[in-house]
Each structure stands twice: as C-alpha cells, then as structure tokens.
Specification:
Chains: A alpha/beta, B mainly alpha, C mainly alpha
Oligomer: heterotrimer
Number of strands of chain A: 10
Largest sheet of chain B: none
Number of domains of chain A: 1
Structural class of chain B: mainly alpha
Order of helices and strands of chain A: HEEEHEEHEHHHEHEHEEHH
Strand content of chain A: 25-35%
CATH class of chain B: Mainly Alpha
Distance between the termini of chain B: 57 Å
Number of strands of chain B: 0
CATH class of chain A: Alpha Beta
Number of helices of chain A: 10
Radius of gyration of chain A: 18 Å
Shape of chain A: globular
Structural class of chain A: alpha/beta
Number of helices of chain B: 9
Largest interface: B-C, 69 and 68 residues
Shape of chain B: flat
Largest sheet of chain A: 6 strands, mixed
Number of domains of chain B: 1
CATH topology of chain B: MetI-like fold
Chain lengths: 249, 228, 237
C-alpha cells in the first residue's frame, strides 16, 4: 500500500448545521480516502443534499470541520474559489448555462480561472465530451439536448477543471427512466478510472455495483456507514432496512 | 437662501388639504369602479368574437396606452367643448381616468381570462350551462381572482395619476397644493407634505390589497418572477 | 389675436418634438444608470444595500411624477441653485425612471434559476465572472421586452414636464391652442405624435415578449407594486 492510497480525500468532522431552529445536520462524521466511492442515501429531508453541498461550501456549516485533500473548506476563505476547482459538482437540475453551447459551457471556467488558452481549453473540453460520448453535440445549446445528454454534458463540464473529487447531488433524479442508465454508466466509467466520488442517489442498483461504502442518513444524522454487503444484508440497522424495503418495492 | 423650513405655514391649510385628499380618493374610486365595469364589459363582449367589435376594443386599448394621460385629459376638457360637449373639470377628470383605467384593466382582465384553465369551460358545458352563464359565473370570478394583484396595482397607479388632473383645474390634492404654494411661497414644504400624503395613501392601499391577496386569494402584489 | 391654425403651428409643435425626444433620452440614460445600481443593490441579498434601494424605489413609485417634478423644480431653487425647466425635468424623470427600471431589472436578475449561480460557484468562479458571463447575459435576454415597455412610459411621462414650462410637444400644443383656439385639432395632433412615437415601441415590446415567453421561465414585468399578469402590462398613463 502506497502513501497515496492512505491519503484522506474527504474528511467531514463533527459537522452541525442549523436552519434557524431546525437542526439539519447532526454531528456528522464521515471520511473517505482517495479513490473511494461513497454513496449517501436516505429518505427526503434526511440532510444528504445539504451535507454534500457543504463539502464544496455551497452551504456553510455551523460547527465542525470539512477538509478536502487536507485543505479546510470554509466559504468565507479567500481561497475557496481555488479549492472549488479541485472539487467537481454535478447537480440534480444539471444547471448548464442555457445561453452557451455545450462546448462553451465546458470551456468557460477553465479559460477564466486557469492558465489555459482558449484553444487548450477547447481541446480539454472535447476530450471530456468524447469521454461522456457527446462530442457531436458540442456546438449545440443545452435546450437542444435530451435530459440524459445534458447531464452528461454537466459531468464533462465539471471534469474539465480536473477535479480530484467529484460530488453528485441526485444526478439522475430529474431524468426520465430511459435516460438514467446512460448517466449511471458514465458515472461507473468515471469510478472505474479511480475518481474519488461522493454520490447522493436513490439508485440502489448503482450503489450496490460501485460503492465502496454506503452511508445511510435519516433526519440529519448518519445512521449507518458500512460496506454494501453489510448494508444490503440482514446486518443493516432497522431503519435502513425499512428504507430499503420501501425503495425496492 | 432659505434653509429654515416653515411647515407650519402649510399645516394651516390642513382643511383644504383634507378636502383635496378626499377629492383625490373620490376620483380614484370612481375611476376604478367604472373602469373595471368597462373592462368587464369588454371581456364579455369579446367572447362573442365579432371581428369589428374586437378590433374596436383593440384600437381603444392601443390608443389609450400609447398616448399620455395628460393629453387625453386636455382633449376631453378643452377639446370636446369645441365639438359641443361640455363638462365640468371633475366630470372630465373622471371620464379621462375611466377611459385610461378601462384600457389597462381590459388588458389585465384579458390575460386573467386566458389564464383560467380551459377545463373550466368544459366542465360548465358538461353541466349544461349556456356560454354566457359559464363566462359570468365560472370564468369571470376566477379571472378576477387571478388578476386581483394587478388590479390592486392599477388602483394605486390611478390614485397617483389623479395629480395630473390639477392641469384641468380639478380640486384634488395636487391642485390644492399648488394654490397653497402660490399663497405661502413655501413651495418645497407644500410639495413635501403633499408627497407624504400620497405616500401614506399608497402604502395604506398597498397594505390592504396585500392583506386581502395573501389571506384570501393566495397571491401577492409584490413582484415575484417565477421560473420553471 | 386669434389666428387660424396654419402650417406654422404644426412646425412649432414639431420643433418642440426635439425636447420630447431629448428629455426621453436623458431620462432613459439617467434612469438606466440609477436603475442598474438599484437592481444590483436590491438583488445583492445584503440588507444594507437592499434597504436604501428599496426606500428609494418606494419613494419614487409611491408619489406622483408631477409632485416629484415640482419638488425638483422648486426644491433646487430652495437651495439657491437656479434650474431651468429642462434640468429639473431631466432630474425628476431620471429619478422616477430609475426606480421603475431598477425594480424591473431586479426581477429579471432574480428570475434566473438559482442553480445557475450554484453552478458558477461550484466551478470556482468569482462573483465578477459569474455576473458578467452567467447572470448578465441571461438577465439581458429577459429584460429587453419590459425595458422597451418602460421606454414607452418615459416618452409619455415627458408630457408632464409641460407643467413646469418646458416647451415639449404638450406645452407647444397648449401655446398653439391659446393662439388658434382650436384645442381639439391641436391636441389630436399632439396625441397623434405621441402615438407615432410609442406604438411602434409597444409593438416591439410585445413581439419580444412573445418570443421570450416561449422559453421555460415565466416572466412578469417588475415593480414592487407590481404586475401579476402573464403578459407584462405597461404601467403608464
């Protein structure tokens, strides 16, 4: 085992978050090493989206600490923009920029925030667009693409900054069923290449296939954090079993 | 250079100011009630789908919306007498305001009617109701409910617009303020007091409409852009 | 001496058109600058920016334009500054227009889905970059139709400047009426000129609105005491 494998990619330590009087995240502790694929699941309102949005400081934490590759994530810090480039995020609503082509969506941030020239950014973009199999759509606008294509474009856009960690916030929840597979396949491909991934999802089949760990959250707290085998077996906690029962019906 | 403000000189005329304010309110209320009647009439007539009528309404709306209220008032008060139609300033003011509100309300109500789900008409027909009845009892009430906030805004606008009627000598608030100003030479103070009164009226009515909208209609006057 | 209405009178009115157009332009430019500041302050999400801007908007949308004009004209001389009707009118109209444009543009900025901002943040872009490359282009697209509608308002509002003596076309009409005693004909011509100026703009605004309404966002023309209809109704008189 090399030092590389032991390095912590994501450390969420004792994180609490309140929305007014509502305790949204209760003392969450969760860590992942490089190349880990962590799936976070749970009923709605469990705080899983809130948690993942804290990892790249889209939401602020009230207490506790979050570190990505050893760097503290604090939304107030001046370097947060730089750190965010190392963390890729894929949203449930895709959030592609409608007034830019797919290619422009991918090159915007690299051109503005890294030292790449326009041509270099374009080459990188086309590389990742190829990877997610939509290079032919690169000059189209998001509105001209199907949901599945848009989400894959969004994944490519995040990859163009060459992040070391990818966050997925329910990436397939807004898709029609027939398009879910193409996005999951892309994510599986990414996982196969060793990308560290934190993924909030309802897709249990996907979780079973690629997750190294499954974290089950309920009402703001981590109820279970275990291997997939343990999660899907009788060793799961009662609440997790209940959740699975409802989901897999 | 007079930095000392003499509001007292203006407050001496509080009686006149109150009269002016009441006239302002009266003008606005008449304008709104009659204007809304005009708009409702237009909405009903539109359902008949007679091209000439639809065209006339469209022309009326476009003419009013693309010419200034002040000029409309001048035409009615100064222009019509040349054609033999005379009226006193308050009547002319009401006519001008009604025509103005009527045009805007016609458009607002039209959008409201279009916003009522078409299933409503189908349901009414299925129940054996005649078209006229369906419109009056089912469509119109829902349309009015939908556009209540917009109509509330219209009222506030017309309340402020009454100030232009001072140009045709209607004794509303601005007109009174003008005469106070010319008698006391306290122009700044007079207009500040006047502005405060208008602002108070605006805030009051806004509060009333907002209260009604939020508690009874589930809507709001405050602009909110919606995005799907 | 009463003179019959002649061509010279028409020319007189048309020459006053310069002032109507000039004032409209000044008000739109001045109001546009103020409006941009107001829109940014109101959509910043920070109270110490938002509240002053809101106060300004309430003051200028909650009082009649005529009163604002009077305050501008008489208020300035109060402080010893001698202002011409033109300056007072340009000032008052700019301030008034700024309030309406500001609220409209704020609405356009806020109409952009919040996910756009989140995506920009997630990509590590600074506020400045997010605003210029993501927010502004989308806001502009939404803003064009209601902004043209407000321009129509501005042109009509210039008529109020006649009350402080600026010889734009309404005042010119009054002057000509006094010499020819043909109020109906004169004001009809004046109204006709306004119509010729405003109607094309209104049509344009309508076309733009129809085009942008086919996209997914539902837009409403904005003012705090705003319009709630699906089609923005021009808020003017």
């Amino acid at each position: 085992m090399t030092m590389d494998n032991l390095q912590m990619a994501v450390e969420i330590l004792g994180v609490n978050k309140f929305y007014g009087g509502f305790h949204a995240l209760k003392n969450i502790t969760l860590t992942g090493t490089i190349h880990d694929r962590i799936v976070i699941c749970g009923p709605s309102g469990s705080g899983k989206s809130t948690l993942i949005r804290c990892v790249n400081a889209l939401e602020a934490v009230d207490s506790g600490k979050i570190l990505v590759h050893g760097e503290v994530i604090d939304h107030r810090s001046r370097d947060i923009h730089i750190l965010r480039r190392g963390i890729g995020m894929v949203f449930q609503q895709f959030n592609l920029f409608p007034h830019l082509t797919v290619l422009q969506n991918c090159t915007l941030a690299p051109v503005l925030t890294t030292a790449l020239t326009k041509q270099e950014a374009k080459d990188v973009a086309l590389h990742f667009l190829e990877k997610v199999h939509i290079a032919e759509q690169s000059d189209r606008y998001p509105s001209q693409l199907s949901g599945g294509q848009q989400q894959r474009a969004a994944i490519a856009r995040a990859l163009c900054l060459r992040p070391r960690v990818m966050l997925f916030d329910e990436p397939t929840s807004s898709l029609d069923p027939e398009m879910v597979k193409e996005v999951l396949d892309t994510m599986i491909q990414l996982a196969g290449e060793g990308m560290t991934m934190l993924c909030v999802t309802h897709e249990m089949g996907f979780a079973r296939e690629i997750a190294d760990r499954i974290v089950f959250m309920d009402r703001g707290a981590v109820v279970q954090d275990s291997s997939p085998e343990d999660f899907f077996s009788a060793q799961a906690t009662p609440r997790a079993q209940q959740f699975l029962g409802r989901l897999l019906h | 250079m007079d930095y000392i403000f003499h509001f007292g000189d203006v407050f001496r005329y509080s009686g006149e100011l109150i009269d002016g304010t009441l006239t302002t309110l009266r003008l606005a209320l008449w304008a709104m009630v009659l204007g809304l009647t005009v708009a409702t009439g237009n909405a009903m007539v539109r359902t008949l789908r007679i091209p000439v009528v639809d065209m006339t309404i469209a022309v009326y709306v476009e003419v009013i919306r693309n010419t200034p209220l002040l000029v409309q008032a001048y035409l009615i008060f100064f222009g019509l007498p040349a054609l033999g139609i005379r009226m006193n300033s308050e009547t002319a003011a009401v006519v001008a305001l009604v025509l103005n509100v009527g045009a805007y309300s016609t458009e607002i109500l039209r959008a409201g009617v279009e916003a009522v789900p078409s299933g409503q008409v189908e349901a009414g027909s299925a129940l054996g109701l005649r078209p006229g009845l369906i419109f009056r009892k089912i469509i119109l009430p829902q349309a009015l409910k939908i556009v209540f906030p917009a109509l509330g805004s219209q009222f506030i606008m017309i309340l402020l617009a009454t100030s232009l009627m001072s140009a045709i000598s209607t004794p509303e608030l601005t007109s009174i303020t003008n005469s106070i100003q010319s008698q006391t030479f306290r122009s700044f103070e007079a207009y500040v007091v006047s502005a405060i009164i208008y602002l108070a009226l605006t805030i009051f009515f806004f509060g009333v409409f907002e209260f009604v909208a939020r508690n009874f209609l589930g809507s709001t006057l405050i602009n909110r852009m919606e995005v799907r | 001496m009463i003179q019959p209405f002649e061509w010279q009178d028409s020319i007189f009115i048309l020459r006053a058109l310069r002032w109507t157009l000039g004032l409209s332009l000044a008000a739109f430019i001045g109001g546009g600058t103020i409006g941009l500041a107001v829109a940014l302050m109101r959509s910043s999400g920070r109270t110490y920016y938002s509240v002053p801007a809101l106060t300004y908007v309430i003051l200028f949308q909650g009082t009649p334009l005529l009163i604002q004009l009077m305050l501008s004209f008489f208020g300035a001389s109060m402080f010893g500054v001698d202002v011409s009707p033109w300056m007072a009118a340009a000032l008052a109209l700019s301030l008034n227009t700024g309030a309406f444009l500001g609220e409209t543009w704020r609405g356009c900025i806020e109409a952009i889905p919040s996910g756009q901002r989140a995506a920009g943040i997630a990509l590590g872009l600074h506020w400045r970059h997010r605003f210029v490359y993501i927010i502004l282009p989308q806001a502009l697209r939404i803003a064009i139709a209601p902004t043209v509608g407000i321009l129509v308002q501005v042109v009509k509002n210039t008529s109020v400047a006649s009350m402080i003596g600026l010889v734009e076309i309404t005042r010119a009409g009054q002057i000509v009426t006094a010499t020819t005693l043909e109020p109906f004909v004169v004001y009809l011509i004046v109204a006709g000129i306004y119509f010729a100026l405003c109607w094309p703009l209104s049509l344009l605004s309508g076309k733009l609105e129809a085009r942008s309404a086919t996209s997914r966002a539902t837009r409403r023309s904005a003012a705090p005491i705003g319009n709630y209809t699906a089609k923005p109704v021009s808020r003017t008189l």
